[in-house]
Structure formats: structure tokens, C-alpha cells
Amino acid sequence: MAVQTVQNGTGANAAGTTVDLGPAAALSCRECGERFDLGPIFACASCFGPLEVAYDLPSGTPDELKKRIAAGPDNIWRYAPLLPVPADVASKPNINPGFTKLVKADNLARELGITGSLHVKDDSGNPTHSFKDRVVAIAVEAARAFGFTTLSCSSTGNLAGAVGAAAARAGFRSCVFIPHDLEQGKVVMAAVYGGDLVGIEGNYDDVNRFCSELIGDPLGEGWGFVNVNLRPYYGEGSKTLAYEICEQLGWRLPDQLVIPIASGSQLTKIDKGLQELIKLGLVEDKPYKIFGAQAKGCSPVSTAFKAGHDVVRPQKPDTIAKSLAIGNPADGPYVLDIARRTGGAVEDVDDEQIVDAIKLLARTEGIFAETAGGVTVGVTKKLIESGLLDPTLTTVVLNTGDGLKTLDAVAPTTGPTATIRPSLDAFRDAGLAAS
Amino acid sequence: MAVQTVQNGTGANAAGTTVDLGPAAALSCRECGERFDLGPIFACASCFGPLEVAYDLPSGTPDELKKRIAAGPDNIWRYAPLLPVPADVASKPNINPGFTKLVKADNLARELGITGSLHVKDDSGNPTHSFKDRVVAIAVEAARAFGFTTLSCSSTGNLAGAVGAAAARAGFRSCVFIPHDLEQGKVVMAAVYGGDLVGIEGNYDDVNRFCSELIGDPLGEGWGFVNVNLRPYYGEGSKTLAYEICEQLGWRLPDQLVIPIASGSQLTKIDKGLQELIKLGLVEDKPYKIFGAQAKGCSPVSTAFKAGHDVVRPQKPDTIAKSLAIGNPADGPYVLDIARRTGGAVEDVDDEQIVDAIKLLARTEGIFAETAGGVTVGVTKKLIESGLLDPTLTTVVLNTGDGLKTLDAVAPTTGPTATIRPSLDAFRDAGLAAS
């Protein structure tokens, strides 16, 4: 197990104590490869490239490792040997997300003309009902290791709830920043866990700019911003989606995955997780294709993919898929690389197609997805129609959130079949009796 | 495995084929004990008492049965040998609820002065985020066995979503009846799964009366009303809460359970489940206490308990805990029996205490509960203060639903700590920086 001394000047663990984040050996720059000691840093000191966690992966045979995983808890901590967390992580208070259902979606497959097998990885089953619980849970352990006492983030939705809930349970103070004019429902979800919630007079960009200032100021001393100074650790949480999908398929790689793109981090980390499983011999080394899914109203990556560009040009988002509405996705270029390397693609669907896809998934599989789930299901349909996705193979589609959080998307077109007086005659006239 | 012929005249399986509901041997009257063949009937032909499922419980040693359960899926079907479902139930399309988290609630225990161990059984992790998925999943299998093609219910909330989702996935048509003036959010949750949703011009009582008429009419031919003509099977789903709690405690009985009361069915079935586990030798035969929890605005059972009555006098509900607002609870007298037999109690809390308890659970454990969860947590607090619940023992508190479905309860008192301009000065003035 790697134990590293925190670099001087990182602002954490000033006492110079050691940091135990299990198999995490160092941070390495994704651009130039330079390595840094584990610490709350996120950009390469040489080239400003993003940092990611490098591991000493566990030794032992694949069967031994599978047995070790199977003996673990029914949450992401079963994969502790592959994550930047201490070995005893499961005994610490945390929100314990993961091991959500991989639903075999035979009804949906039939409607889409898929003759292979189709599975929906349904992350609405997480504690606060989105995949954000995975990444926040890892950030919590990094914050603990670095001696932070406050967890923070800027958010307009899922992340605020995930941070609030995890901080409450793990014994951190939380202070979350939101635009001041959010809908009341979202404010309630962010505030109910009892941490501090600060409305910022401005839009989401203003909130982000303010948070960047705060990180560099003594006022933010001791604060872990889960998706800024803890981002290299936070991002690793998405690897657990890859691990779970393969384990739930009986330690087999799917042939095709359809993954939503916001910043693009989730897609790149799922690819990283699949590569690790191949390297460790937990799954067969065979090709798989990764497809990225965007909303047309915020489709910088799919636009670049279709144009054959390596650079992603920012867009101003205008879509009902708010949780994917990042106009300048940090990991966009890496997503393009992965889609091209694996033989996948990046596609987008418009708001009407998103709503149709949410309803399609609900009426075929009983899963009520967030708009992001409508994006992946809608894109899957489109990819089959265009011939890019092979309907005879094994495909996994991600639903990363819960429809209860985006009721507005379907409300205008979802209502009663009929409204009648309470009488059998009225019911007969409505034509709804059994045929 | 018991295979029974459906009674003539029950309206299902008119062809006289046999019904395989696994270990379910018969229906028996809870009042007079008379037995009936398995069928879609719910009241005793002799005394009109409620019918419940009688079992041929599995033979074999406790260790063999534990091993068989552990080898099952991570949902309620792992307990198929103890439920009215066929042995191959896990291979049929269903919503597969259960095996939700039993959260060790150390932070909440500390706040409540509990020195023993406190656990929250968090059923917000079910597919449609309430315990109703458990009972509906069993009703689906009964409906399949009896040849029904339409699933139905009257509902104002959780049940509508559970029926809609399960019917969609299991391949049934659904037709759910609601009062015509429900809030739009609840209508969306009921309608999104694509079944028929019928608004009835009237209140919830009118809806129920209409459904009773429909069951007796040819218009309702082939319809399974999950909580009426399938009620004996439906109710058994709540036993799985007992099984899971004990298995998750390492096959040990808790000393005390705090359970919400709507109709009272859930509480009586949890007791039935615990008794079965004792009988089968899966847990030690030792005393446990069952506490019932109501909202003061709908507290017919706690009122009767405190007055020492055996009869429950109906009340007109007026509480924010809508999912518990049954003024004339069918199983009220049985709840009184169980609370008295086990040495428990029935207590209630007012709306303000419910809201406080929702927030207490959220800020200590990161669990955002429905109002029903506020009722059980609030009652637990009150029972400790009054000395009826022993804080040195092992206690399990149920959260049966999700806070996202009852945002209105906490919205008026849950908001930002501060609203500021996006500047460090403004933030400093707000006094929220680290101390």
C-alpha cells in the first residue's frame, strides 16, 4: 500500500503527516505525464494539464481479486483495491453509493430492434438518486485524508444534494454555492441536509468564478471543493460504473456502452476502469465501443466528432437536460479520442426526442429517468437507426439520474388518459374497460 | 411445493388450470381460521374476516436455508421460499425491489441519546422510492398466476407509481384511479409509465367507492386491484422488511422496531415475518418490541392504544403525512394486539415534529425521508423521552419513502443560509468562512 507525504505548500496536512489513499501512488499529468505526490492539487505545475490518479494496482491472480471483491460490501467499497481510498474505507461513515441495478431491458430492446442483449445501468438507485454520489463519496475520503473539514461545490442540482448528504453523514461541515434564483424544489434538495447553502446573486458562471477566487483565498482555508481541488480523486468514482457493469455481466465486457457527456469526465473514467479490468485479467481483452450522448442544445462534443475536429468549440447551452448543460466540457478532447479509438461515436438528440425517450424507458422498463437518461436512450435509438450501433451485440446504456428531479421535462405532455365522474357508466363511455 | 386448484367462481383461471404460488398453501381467515383455496379473494365467506396467506414453510436446517437465501439475488426474491411466489420468480420480468440499505445511524443515535445501536431501514432505495414496490411486486406475481391482464389501484401517491412501473416492466396493462385534482407532480409520477390514468371527479373516498363497484362489475373482468382482490398476496410483501432487517443484522432479531401505521398492514406483516424466522430457527427465539408510529393529525390507533381500547375509532385525517393518512385503518385492532403482546406502544407526533424529524435525519445521516420517515424518527425521539423505548438496546427505525415526493413538507422552512453578491468581501461579511 502506497503511503505518500503530502507536498509542502498544498495547504493540507500542514503537520506533514502521511496520506493513506490505498493503491493511489501519485498524481500524474494527463498531458505531459509528470508525477506529483498525492495532495489537493488538480493542475500540472509544468504544463497546466489535468492531473489524474496513478495506481499501484493489486497483485494476485484474477480469481483471487474477484473473490476479494465478491466478499466486499454491496456498494462501491467492494472495489477499494482499485480506488484512491484506504483499505478500511468501508468502516468509515460515508454515503456508500453504488452497486445499483443493471436492468436487463428486454422490452426496450424489442422496441428498439435490438436482438442482442440490452441493459440499463440505473444509477437512480443511489442514495441521493444520481451517479454524483459515487464521485462525492471518493472526494469525501480524499478530504478526510488531507485534513479538510468543510466540503464545498458549486452546483445547480444533483451535486449539491450529493455533497450535502455525504458531508452530513461523514461528519464534515458543508457549504454549497448555488445561483440565487434556482427553483424552490432544487433549493430544498440542496438545503435539507443542514449544511450551509449560499445563494450567489448571479448566474452559474458567476458562482463558479466566485468559487475559484475562494479556493485561492485564506477564507477558503481547509475547504475541499469536490470538483476543483479534489477533482482528481472525485473523478475516479466514475470508474466504479465500469467495474459494476462488468461484474454484473459476470465479469464480461459489454460490446457497446452509451454514456452521457457533461464535462466528459464520466466517460473517460469508465474507459479507464475498463482498461484496468483488462490489465488485471478480470475480463477478457477484447474490443468494446464507447458512444457519447449529448443534448442537441448543448452538443459541443458531438459537433466536433461529426466535423472530425480534435478541438471542442464551446457552446451556450439551451436544453432541458440541465445536468448535461456544460458548454465548454473540460474532458471533451479526451472523449473524442476514446470514441475514435474504440470505434464508437458521439451523437445528440433534441429536447423532444429526450422527452420521448424518457417516456419510452418508463413505459417499457418501469424506470423513470432524469433528462440525462432520456439523452442516452434517445441517442441509442438514433445510433441504431443510423447503423452505428450494432443491434446484435451486448449494449449497456447509462441512466445517471432520477426523473423525480426533472419532472418539468415531462409534465407538459404527461397526464391522465381521461377524467370522469365516479360512475360505471362514465367509465364505460371512456372506453377503458378490458377488451 | 403446493399447487392448488383455483376455486370455481373466483373469476380467474376459469379454465381450471392450477396455480403455483410456491410455498403458499391456502388462504386462511384471520378471524375464524377457515381455509380457502388460493384465489383472488380477500374476505372470508363465513365471517367476512380478512384472508391471509398460509404457508407450507420450507424444511431443512436453518443453515441450509440461510445458504439458499444468500445464494439468491440482491432483492426480495432471495426470500422466495417464504413468499407466495413461484420458485422461478427471479427469472420473470418484475420490478425486483428490496434489499435496501440498513444504515447504521450513529450520528442520529448520538443526537437521540441512544447508546445501543440504531439502524434506519431506508426503503427510499426501492425502484420507485417507496416500500410500495415490495407489496406490488408480490401482487404482480399473484396477478400472473390468476391470469389477470390489467393491474389497478386507487391511489394518491406512492402506490400509483409502484403499480405503473411494475405493470410496465412485467407486461401488464395498468389502469390507476386518482382524484382529479391531484397536484401536477403526483399526476406526472403516476402517468409517466404509460398506463391508463383516470382522474375521478371527487375525493379519495369517491375514488375508492368507484373501484369497489368496478371490481364487482363485468367492466372490471380480468383486473387485479393490487390492494383489494389481490390484497392477501400484496400484504405479504411487507414480510420482506422483517427478513432483510434480520439478515442484515447478521440473522439477529432487533430488540425494538419503530414502524409507521397507515392501514396497519405493514406492521402486522413485519411481525408475521419475524415470527416465521423464529419458527424456522433462522433467528434466536427472544423477545422483541414493536412500536407503531402515527401522525397526530391521523392517529386513530395511537389514540386507541393510549385509551386502552381494543376498538379503533375512525378519524378524519388532517396531516402533512399524506401517505399515512388513513382515518379508518383496516388492521388497527391487530396493530393494538401486537404492540401490547410485544410490550411496545403506539405513539404520534404533530406536523411540526414531523418536519423537525425529517431535517434531523437528513442532517445526521444524509437520508432525505418522506413525511412517513419523519413520523417514525419523531416518534422514536418521543418514545425515548417518555422512557418507553430503551436507548441501550438495538433499535430499527423504518423510512418507507423518499423526501423528493413530499418536498412541500419541508419547503417553507428550508432555504439558503445566506444570499450574497459574488465577492469575497460579501462572503466574509456573511460570517460563513472556516473558523
Automatic annotation (TrEMBL), chains A, B:
<dbReference type="InterPro" id="IPR036052">
    <property type="entry name" value="TrpB-like_PALP_sf"/>
</dbReference>
<protein>
    <recommendedName>
        <fullName>Threonine synthase</fullName>
        <ecNumber>4.2.3.1</ecNumber>
    </recommendedName>
</protein>
<dbReference type="InterPro" id="IPR001926">
    <property type="entry name" value="TrpB-like_PALP"/>
</dbReference>
<dbReference type="Pfam" id="PF00291">
    <property type="entry name" value="PALP"/>
</dbReference>
<dbReference type="GO" id="GO:0003941">
    <property type="term" value="F:L-serine ammonia-lyase activity"/>
</dbReference>
<feature type="modified residue" description="N6-(pyridoxal phosphate)lysine">
    <location>
        <position position="132"/>
    </location>
</feature>
<dbReference type="GO" id="GO:0004794">
    <property type="term" value="F:threonine deaminase activity"/>
</dbReference>
<keyword id="KW-0456">Lyase</keyword>
<dbReference type="GO" id="GO:0006567">
    <property type="term" value="P:L-threonine catabolic process"/>
</dbReference>
<dbReference type="GO" id="GO:0009097">
    <property type="term" value="P:isoleucine biosynthetic process"/>
</dbReference>
<dbReference type="GO" id="GO:0009088">
    <property type="term" value="P:threonine biosynthetic process"/>
</dbReference>
<dbReference type="InterPro" id="IPR050147">
    <property type="entry name" value="Ser/Thr_Dehydratase"/>
</dbReference>
<dbReference type="GO" id="GO:0004795">
    <property type="term" value="F:threonine synthase activity"/>
</dbReference>
<keyword id="KW-0663">Pyridoxal phosphate</keyword>
<dbReference type="GO" id="GO:0006565">
    <property type="term" value="P:L-serine catabolic process"/>
</dbReference>
<comment type="similarity">
    <text>Belongs to the threonine synthase family.</text>
</comment>
<dbReference type="InterPro" id="IPR004450">
    <property type="entry name" value="Thr_synthase-like"/>
</dbReference>
<feature type="domain" description="Tryptophan synthase beta chain-like PALP">
    <location>
        <begin position="98"/>
        <end position="401"/>
    </location>
</feature>
